[in-house]
Specification:
The complex is a heterodimer of chains A (116) and B (776). Chain A is mainly α. Chain A is built from three helices and no strands. Chain A has a single domain (2-47, 68-103), classed as Helix Hairpins. Helices cover 63% and strands 0% of the residues of chain A. The radius of gyration of chain A is 20 Å and the shape is elongated. Chain B has helices spanning 4-26, 30-34, 36-47, 49-53, 78-101, 108-127, 131-149, 156-187, 192-197, 200-204, 209-223, 232-235, 241-250, 255-262, 264-267, 273-293, 298-319, 322-353, 369-383, 389-402, 408-431, 450-468, 470-486, 503-527, 529-538, 540-562, 567-585, 603-621, 625-645, 649-670, 682-708, 715-728, 733-741, 743-765; strands at residues 58-65, 70-76. Chain B has a two-stranded antiparallel sheet. Chain B has 776 residues and is mostly helical. In chain B, helix 1 (4-26) runs antiparallel to helix 6 (108-127) and helix 18 (322-353) packs across helix 23. Classes of the chains: A mainly alpha (116), B mainly alpha (776). At the A-B interface, helix 1, helix 2 and helix 3 of A face helix 27, helix 28, helix 29, helix 30 and helix 31 of B.
Chain lengths: 116, 776
């Protein structure tokens, strides 16, 4: 399963990289979104896969069972998911405004600092 | 007051920083007040002569960076004292001189800041007993030299010369730093006094000592303008005259010679010392005097003869006999005295007449009698005329060459040849402008204010006094200095005026006669100045120029390639660089999949993975915005399912919520977003696809490596697991981490979201023209 996930993560990275290299600005935004998914999944897989072992302290128990999934990467990813949503929303708004202001979605036309 | 020398050192720096304020209050007179500091220093150092003569060095230690073993260690012995006296006494004269030379200049305060900064650094160089401390002061002298050469900063020539001096001496400084660190590591101590007390032969025999030697020599040679690094010194003559007199003849350029002398007992034990140092010195000496012949500018003549003298000193240290070291110390003292005076008098001529070409000068003695007298004494001392210190030191120079190891006659011929040119240059710079027929000058010549002639006159008096009674200077300064260099406490040097009818005396007479003859020929030599210009162009300065312009061209080229303004090329560069670096490491660490320890695949999970991959690839290929957004949703929901299946329900819930919101966001923005343009050529797309595939492969391998090398137990996770219930009363450990253990991080996260929301709001609602500034 880890092997398959590694391939999945590789495909996600490849796809996001390909999209980031495009000139159309909307595709770049899609690349950003895919990239954060890939990173999250990478951290998740690196933290170790466990089936049916949620990181809850069982009723009656005092400490987390040794067989439980590692809670730390999960906490990190949870933060990352929310932040990447914020980034995505911001980027979308920015792309929208940039399109309004410049009338182009070609990244190469956005090189200069002055409005054309 | 045991620590007076240290207090003097500190107060020079304090004076430096007070100088600008003082200049605002006192105007041009601030130099006179400031000169009290080096004057007090000269007094303190002079008072130390008897104890140094008795062989009791002054030692001061103070911890500075104990964790690095760096401390403020100072030690003043005979060698240090000779330099300290030169720096402080000439410092007083130069401070006065600058008050006259730069009178009325608005930024005189800044000038004194640099000058005193230099003075303090130079005092530090010669009294430091710690190699790192010495290096720090050494670099400070390079920096203050840079600032002083570039004092006329509105002139491009000054700036170029300043930069050249900084780059050459700075590069040497880096070599010195490396050499010093290697040496300290090798010997196990950074204290110079301890280093010199060690068994030099054992240290020299260590592997890698040759590297240390060459690095330290590079530092010394660049600083003391040795061939092939000599070119920066004549160019540094764009500085004001007081700077040339002080830094670029009397003190700073001798720092390299000082370093050679300081580490002499250690470095000269190397078999490479003589074959490197003596020839470099000899070549520098000859280069300096030959180039001096072709100059028609007083300052340049003096600068090239300074190069020659620095070569002489290096050559003497390279020869390294007792007599040679003693001669070097005497020569150093004599040169500092007469050359500082001559630089100041030629600066006065320039200042009062506006001319620096010796051919256009003459008969100024009536207009400026004091300056003329000082220049005469300086010139005669430089020419090595009897009854002056220059004569005494040259006698020792000749004697040392005569008994040099190897081909003594060859050294002697070179030494006499250089001295002959010195005589001609001395007449040109010290005598010609003041005697003979008065030549008309652009400015009406008259005597300079006392601040500008008193220093040179006093230096002349010192030259006469030490020349007539050399035994005082010999026993008090030169002897202890030579003893410190040789590392031999029992060695007592004496300087004598009269040695009997020796070969050296005969050579001195021949030198003066030949020098007079050469002086007569000078106009004809200078007429062929084109040859000297050609020589200079062929020289190492040409190499410096090529190197510098090559470096700049390379910088421009690589900037235009890497910083090309296309963001995606930046991403490409960064990612591909990472891929190459990581890919380089990967073979060998990627484990072969260990199927047994892995979680068994399930039909459901495999299907989800395939869906995710299909979604991602589809998002790349589709030309419809709508399909791309849907494909993105497939990926997001698929990942949420993976989270759910592998024991992360909180993640799954958050992911589903966020995916939904993202989808809503995209759909809301759908009609406002630009349609997919087709910008890239097919070949570019294929290239990007291949690179993306490579990147993806590397990342997949990284996942495998990380998977297999994960630590079984993680202290942080264990802490969270054990204390979640006990400390925070929560059974959902992930939640507890977010809202309790790392609550501050979560607050930060909320802040980020709030800022993003504000940004989005601002971008969508605030329009140009609606109260805001029109932007199109």
């Amino acid at each position: 399963m880890e092997f398959l996930l590694a391939i999945t993560i590789g495909v996600l990275y490849a796809a996001s990289f390909y999209l980031l290299l495009r000139r159309g600005v909307v595709r770049v935004v899609l690349g950003v979104a895919l990239l954060s998914q890939a990173v999250n999944l990478l951290i998740f897989t690196a933290g170790g896969l466990r089936e049916g072992a949620v990181p809850f302290i069982a009723e009656g128990g005092k400490v987390l069972g040794a067989a439980s999934a590692d809670p730390l990467p999960q906490a990190l990813i949870l933060t990352a998911i929310v932040i990447s949503f914020g980034v995505l929303a911001f980027t979308l708004a920015m792309v929208h405004r940039a399109d309004q202001a410049t009338g182009t979605d070609d990244v190469d036309d956005l090189k200069g600092t002055d409005a054309t | 007051m045991e620590n007076l020398p240290i207090i003097i050192l500190a107060s020079v720096f304090v004076a430096a920083f007070l100088a600008p304020a003082l200049h605002r209050v006192l105007g041009d007179r601030c130099g006179l007040v400031l000169s009290l500091v080096p004057l007090a220093g000269a007094w303190v150092y002079a008072e130390m002569v008897p104890r140094i003569m008795a062989g009791q060095p002054f030692v001061y230690r103070h911890a500075w960076v104990p964790s690095l073993g760096i401390s403020l260690d100072f030690r003043i012995d005979g060698l240090s004292l000779l330099f300290l006296l030169l720096i402080s006494v000439i410092g007083v004269f130069v401070t006065w001189y600058a008050a006259g030379y730069l009178a009325g200049k608005k930024d005189l305060g800044r000038f004194y800041l640099y000058l005193f900064g230099f003075m303090g650094s130079m005092l530090g160089v010669v009294s430091a007993d710690h190699l790192v401390l010495l290096f720090v002061f050494w670099e400070l002298t390079s920096i203050s030299s840079y600032l002083l050469i570039g004092y006329y900063h509105n002139e491009a020539k000054s700036r170029a010369a300043a930069l050249q001096a900084l780059l050459v001496t700075g590069a040497g400084g880096l070599c010195l730093l490396a050499g010093v660190i290697l040496l300290g590591r090798m010997a196990g101590t950074f204290l110079i006094s301890e280093l010199l007390a060690m068994d030099a032969a054992a240290l020299v025999a260590q592997p890698g000592f040759t590297t240390v030697l060459i690095l330290i020599l590079l530092g010394a040679f660049t600083k003391s303008a040795q061939f092939p690094f000599h070119f920066w010194l004549p160019n540094a003559m764009t500085a004001p005259a007081p700077v040339s007199a002080y830094l670029h003849s009397a003190t700073m350029v001798k720092a390299g010679v000082f370093l050679l002398a300081r580490l002499f007992p250690l470095l000269s034990a190397s078999p490479l010392w003589f074959p490197i140092v003596a020839p470099v010195g000899a070549v520098t000496m000859i280069t300096g005097v030959v180039m001096a012949l072709g100059q028609n500018d007083l300052k340049k003549i003096l600068a090239y003869t300074t190069v020659g003298v620095l070569g002489t000193l290096t050559m003497l240290l390279g020869i390294g006999t007792e007599l040679a070291v003693k001669a070097a110390m005497a020569y150093l003292l004599a040169h500092a005295i007469y050359k500082a005076a001559l630089f100041m008098t030629s600066g006065t001529i320039d200042h009062e007449t506006g001319v620096r070409d010796p051919d256009l000068l003459g008969g100024l003695r009536r207009a400026m009698p004091f300056t003329a007298a000082a220049a005469l004494v300086g010139g005669l001392s430089m020419a090595g005329v009897p009854l002056l210190l220059g004569f005494v030191s040259k006698e020792y120079f000749y004697k040392a060459l005569l008994d040099a190891q190897g081909a003594g006659v060859l050294w002697e011929v070179l030494g006499v040849g250089a001295s002959v040119v010195m005589v001609a240059a001395a007449i040109t710079a010290g005598i010609k402008p003041f005697w003979g027929k008065l030549l008309p000058t652009p400015k009406h010549a008259h005597e300079a204010p006392w601040t500008m002639w008193l220093g040179p006159v006093l230096l002349g008096v010192a030259g006469i006094k030490t020349g007539l009674f050399p035994s005082y200077a010999g026993a008090g300064l030169v002897g202890p200095a030579a003893a410190a260099v040789l590392g031999d406490g029992g060695f007592v040097a004496d300087l004598k005026l009269w040695h009997g009818w020796t070969t050296a005396l005969g050579l001195s007479a021949v030198t003066v006669l030949l020098g007079l003859g050469l002086y007569a020929l000078l106009p004809r030599i200078r007429a062929a100045r084109g040859i000297f210009g050609g020589l200079a162009r062929l020289g190492p300065e040409h190499g410096y120029d090529n190197l510098l312009s090559g470096l700049l061209a390379f910088a421009r080229w690589q900037t235009s390639v890497l910083q090309n303004g296309y963001l995606r090329n930046y991403i490409l560069t960064v990612v591909m660089f990472t891929v190459v670096l990581v890919g380089w490491m990967l073979p060998g660490v990627v484990p072969s999949p260990d199927w047994d320890t892995m979680v068994r695949p399930h039909v459901l999970t495999v299907t989800v993975c395939l869906l995710i991959m299909a979604g991602a690839i589809f998002a790349c290929l589709t030309s419809s915005r709508f399909t791309a957004i849907l494909a993105l949703g497939v990926v997001g929901v698929g990942i949420a399912m993976l989270y759910f299946m592998f024991s992360a329900p909180d993640l799954a819930m958050t992911q589903v919520l966020v995916e939904t919101l993202t989808l809503v966001l995209f759909v809301l923005a759908f009609y406002r977003l630009p349609v997919f343009g087709n910008y890239s050529k097919k070949s570019v797309k294929i290239r990007d696809a291949i690179l993306a595939a490579v990147f993806g492969t590397v990342m997949a391998m990284v996942v495998l490596v990380e998977q297999s090398s994960r630590a079984a137990d993680n202290a942080v996770s264990r802490f969270m697991g054990e204390n979640s219930l006990a400390l925070a009363n929560g059974r959902n450990v992930v939640n507890v981490i977010l809202v309790d253990f790392r609550a501050l991080d979560t607050l930060g996260e909320i802040t980020v979201l709030a800022i993003a929301a504000l940004g989005v709001f601002a971008m969508l609602r605030l329009r140009p023209g609606r109260g805001g500034k029109e932007d199109r």
